[in-house]
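It would be a great kindness if you could assist me with a short task in structural biology. Thank you for your consideration; the sequence and its tokens are set out here.
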Amino acid sequence: MIYKQAIEKDFKENKKNFEIARKIYLSYPTCVFRHNKDDEFDIKDTISKFFKIPFRSIQVIGSAKTGESYVKNTKFSCQDSDLDIAIIDLQMFFSYLELVFLVTKGYKNFTSFSSPDDHRSYEKYIAKGMFRPDLMPRCKEKKEIRLFFNKLSNKYINQFKNINMAIYASECFFESKQGQAIRILRLNEVKNVK
């Protein structure tokens, strides 16, 4: 795959994980849509219109982007793999942060979270500039997001197990998160050489 060859070249040139992540996840084309670019457009356009965000802020990540998962060391599979979407938009990130602040009455009432684990995970992700709607407290907006992605997932059920999304506050946070997958790949490459 061209992705792995480019990454291995960058490893040899001692490039940082976040720089490699920027190139692969923000510049390279999406592997699973290489023969069907209209579906990629339709999915991104539908998301853009639903959330009222710029089209260019929507990125495909994970095994759908590269054709394989660097974390799980598995190939992309239509029956088993999700389509993971990243939205890089500070305004959207803060609007959901404010919503959670209001729902939890200024972070004083955590009973609307599904579990204490969800609350702790939510906080950890927020500290890394990442908002995961699946971890937000119960509210009308969470239900709307879930329904939207269930409908979108059903439309593309033959191509993806599910369609999910996370919101990033900036490209810096996005590159840092995607850089973790590159770091795992780098570690595995080192192990294979020994």
